[in-house]
Amino acid sequence: MDRIRIVGGNPLNGVIPISGAKNAALPLMIASLLTDRTVTLENLPRLADVSLLVRILSNHGVDYSIDGRRQGEEQDAGQTVHMTAREIVDTVAPYELVSRMRASFWVVAPLLARCGEARVSLPGGCAIGTRPVDLLLMALERLGASIEIDAGYVVAKAHKGLRGAEVTFPKVTVGGTHVALMAAALAQGTTVLHNAAREPEVLDLADLLVKMGARIRGAGQSVIEIDGVARLNGAKHRVLPDRIEAGTYAMAAAMTGGDVMLQGAKAEHLKAALDALEQSGATVDASEEGLRIRRNGGPIRPVDISTAPFPGFPTDLQAQFMALMTRAKGVSRITETIFENRFMHVQELARFGAQIRLEGDSAIVEGRPVLKGAPVMATDLRASVSLVIAALAAEGESMVQRVYHLDRGFEALERKLSRCGADVTRISSGD
Ligand code: EPU
Fold it and tell me: 117-169 pLDDT, tens per residue?
């Protein structure tokens, strides 16, 4: 298993190109199952989750090809992948695959909409909480599917096709909205989604579906209307920039007291996080090129945040913001409202000398002027990158174990950080 060695203390200075968003790429790739034509996705990040999903989709019958590197193209530039599901050869998504990546459960929607049936393993819990799929199944049932659970699998059937319906989500769910959008795109009649997720990744999926011929109004708002069509076409689409990657490096820059340009990042995707960063004493400048984040000299001020669905403060940046607050001059309260168990990083941050106390769904962080490097262990993707941020600012050496979590969601992390002056080295298991 690879490890990452970090010697902290260097401010980050330079340019970090922001990759395509993992959480947009996954539903966009899954949408290729909806048509027998070719869906071309540009700017796909080179991530373990993307490679795994390509394998999962190919089991269902998706042929794919990846464009080679072009003249003058950077080593880390996003990939262009062509995906064609001419024929669906298997409507079963087995436990071995779905348990490795929860988002692959979402194949249930296009398989059901296109083939009238799907048998997809329940994903099970994960490090950040129980993460049920009841609302995804509720949406499919509202659209006329029959749903049964059999030996750990969801068996969804709609042999006469799906029908448009009113779907009201009692709680905002990103996955539920993705699934409902894909299913409704091929249903007969009109579907109205109430309390839909407004995350930019939902809008990105809707944009691709519209290019494929879907009729969708209101994506990006909480009420979305979809007029179903009989078939969808191929399309070409560029994956939007990863707001969570951008937010992560923004916090790293603020933490180390540096000056970075996050190339391609969009301020409108990150408003709540940028507001919190500014309150903490960082300077944020948005331009055509991206976002420039600076903190020169001044102290980190404590800021209270509470996670919420978009446009609120993203749960996927909670751990990273907590890392920043461990060095604030004062006490901050960080409240997690989306996932019940997303504080696994607290114990590991404590290994750097951070002072954090849990109170129900909140963490009370008492900032310390100095963190000390330590060996730490990653537990999930966002938790592990919070440890990287803390290590960048800690005195001395840290070793981050279980780096495979980072590889799921951060493209070329060591290269991007090293280019900005950080002392970061990957130690491969063979070394
Ligand atoms: N929920 C239910 N029932 C459901 C679905 C969701 O109770 O049927 C609950 C969840 O347990 C949670 C809340 O609703 O409490 C929100 O969950 P949501 O469905 O929005 O999450 P998701 O679609 O499973 C995506 C991202 C997560 C991100 C969340 C919230 C992807 C692949 N995953 O998950 O990203 O934290 O939205 O923004 O898009 C990550 O990238 O590290 C990650 C965990």
Answer: 999 999 876 777 778 999 999 999 999 999 999 999 999 999 999 999 999 99
Please give the distance, rounded to the nearest whole angstrom, from the Cα atom of residue 174 to the centre of ligand 1: 6
Question: What residues line ligand 1, using a CB cutoff of 6 Å?
Answer: 23, 26, 103, 129, 131-136, 171, 173-176, 315-316, 338-339, 381-382, 409
Q: How far apart are CA 91 and CA 35, in angstroms?
A: 14
Distance 244 CA to ligand 1 centre (A): 14
What is the rounded CA–CA span in Å between residue 348 and residue 224? 41
Give the model's pLDDT for residue 431.
Answer: 65
Cα–Cα distance measured from residue 10 to residue 269, given in angstroms and rounded to the nearest whole number: 28
Classify residue 241 by its DSSP letter: B
* Sign of the C-alpha dihedral computed for residues 245, 250, 256 and 258 taken in this order: positive
DSSP codes joined into one string, 79-141: EEEEEE-SS----EE-HHHHTT-GGGGGGHHHHHHHHSEEEEE----BTTB----HHHHHHHH
Closest to 25 (Cα-Cα) out of 94, 90, 106: 106
φ, ψ at 388 (rounded to 5°): -65, -45
pLDDT, the chain, mean? 95
